[in-house]
Design a protein that fits this description.
- The protein is elongated.
- It contains four helices and ten strands.
- The chain folds into two domains: 39 residues; 173 residues, no CATH class.
- It starts with a helix and ends with a helix.
- The protein is α+β, with helices and mostly antiparallel strands.
- Keywords: Membrane, Transmembrane, Transmembrane helix.
């Protein structure tokens, strides 16, 4: 056995070197994956506190580092088409003057890792967009008059030292009709929040940022 090992020492050494290289490549791949995972931003758009339009839209930062909420938008889909509105700031359609000292004038700002923020009820967000886009009149508080079919919540954030803008969105379906003064039923259409990463989505996001700034 020993003589066989000595006779084939060069070949065995090459095999050992190759196997060692495979092990190092495996660990390097694990380290690269872990680093990329830490650098990848992740924002969740969720529904909380019910399953109707009085429920809350919740943003959760699941990234490794804090993010900065740059823009929040809502797209209303009706039988008449789609309309998109920024809801980054609070509703000013009724001319109400907010208290500038309490910091509640905008939904823009930093969000720490592992933290969540409420953007308000879907009812308020939808009505804000409808009023600012003249889909409904200023005094209307009834969503049933809008003929809603679905809505899309979009969040654009800045993440990392380079400050690149990254978008996330999630669709919600409006179900049934409200009766006896109840709120409309609403539920997420997709299982998870989608990241805007293809070229078309990035161009659409760039147009939004340019239009809102």
């Amino acid at each position: 056995m020993w003589s066989w090992i000595m006779d084939n020492a060069s070949g065995l050494s090459a095999v050992g070197t190759f196997l060692t290289l495979l092990v190092w490549l495996f660990y390097a791949q694990l380290l690269l994956y872990s680093f990329q995972r830490q650098r990848r931003s992740r924002l969740l758009i969720n529904q909380a506190y019910g399953n109707d339009t009085s429920s809350i839209c919740l943003l959760s930062n699941m990234s490794h580092e804090p993010v900065y909420i740059q823009l929040l938008l809502i797209t209303l889909s009706t039988s008449q088409g789609e309309t998109t509105c920024s809801i980054t700031d609070i509703d000013r359609s009724r001319g109400e003057q907010p208290d500038l000292k309490d910091g509640s004038v905008t939904r823009q700002g930093p969000l720490n890792s592992g933290c969540s923020m409420t953007t308000g009820s879907f009812n308020d967000l939808i009505l804000q967009a409808a009023r600012e886009n003249s889909v409904t009149n200023i005094d209307n508080d009834d969503l049933t008059t809008l003929g809603l079919q679905s809505i899309r919540m979009t969040a654009i954030i800045n993440y990392g030292p380079d400050g690149n803008s990254i978008g996330f969105e999630r669709d919600f379906l409006i179900q049934g009709e409200a009766a006896n003064g109840d709120d409309l039923k609403i539920r997420p259409q997709s299982v998870s929040t989608m990241r805007l990463k293809n070229r078309r989505s990035r161009k659409r996001m760039a147009r939004w940022i340019e239009a809102m700034n």
